[in-house]
Amino acid sequence: MSNLLITGGCGFIGSNLVDRWLARGARVVAFDNLSRRGAGENSAWLRARYGARFELIRGDVRDARALADAARDAEIIFHLAGQAAVTASVNNPRDDFESNALGTFNTLEAARLSGKNPIFVFASTNKVYGAMDDLAIVERATRYEYRDLPNGVSEHQPLDFLSPYGCSKGAADQYVRDYNRIYGLRTVVFRQSAIYGYRQFGAEDQGWLAWFIIAAMLGKPITIFGDGKQVRDMLFIDDLLDAYDAVVARIDRVAGQVYNIGGSARHTISVWAEFGPMLETLRGQKIPITTGVWRPGDQRVCVYDIAKATRELNWVPKIPVNVGVEKLYRWIVENVELFV
């Protein structure tokens, strides 16, 4: 039986990951300050499913001592905690830095000082690549596309830490890499694209696809920043968890590596020009929107080339966007009381 520490264990990704490992009989400690919308609801859901087997430490990754205590027996650490929105980082860069850069440093140190050399998987972001203004983009009727990269951007895309969020996650990303090279810690970085799925309490500045569904369901205003043709490769939560499993199973071969983890060119959608009609079909009605100016650092296209992950992890995403969207839509409909 494995001992796991999952920081951010009551967040969207974290709660799904805790659920998967508890269902396998593992001992899992969720470390979360419960500050994000939905974390309390996800904690209650896990408690209802697993009772006393669900172990929650209510703590903050900025607290190095609390993290060291939580990590003492961990064989696997998934570091998912942190500030997750570009807009929030612009409004409060200090909090963003302390949550992401310092929080990751503290988690790495907790892993290193435990003496157990745990597997350490870090959830990084596509924002470490910045706006990717160096890439040629073509405009189609409902979307933007890369002119020269039909399979998307690989891990060779230059890093460009645009926005405080990009800087803090980028610094953390590089610390995680370097703790493998300098200390031999078994670390892996996942530069994750747009993740969506069950237990996602999306907000306007983070988790856009879930937010649009929630807002449409509750009659809240929806603002599209830019022209709505921005394209994202979408990765459903179950596919992401399969990638986490793959890296744990192959850690002796892949420690120290960085992977672009996303839906790939096969699973893409534009933010509103394509998603809007899909949502209106599910709702059976027209959905009013307003438009706003482009937000700083908003990528017109972010599509990942996942060839490295496919080759080294034997992993590919399986859930098409239309299937994943309907799964998330149905979950929100069935749990609408959580969002009121």
Descriptive report:
- This protein is of the alpha/beta class.
- The chain has one domain (3-338): NAD(P)-binding Rossmann-like Domain (Rossmann fold, 3-Layer(aba) Sandwich).
- 41% of the residues lie in helices and 19% in strands.
- It contains twelve helices and 15 strands.
- The protein is globular.
Strand content: 15-25%
Rg, rounded, reads 19 Å
Per DSSP, the total helix count is: 12
Going across the biggest sheet, name each strand in turn: 3-2-1-4-5-8-12
Instruction: Determine the structural class based on helices, strands and strand pairing.
Output: alpha/beta
Q: Name the quaternary structure.
A: single chain
- Largest beta-sheet characterization: 7 strands, parallel
Instruction: From the 3D structure, determine the CATH topology.
Output: Rossmann fold
CATH class: Alpha Beta
Mean pLDDT: 96
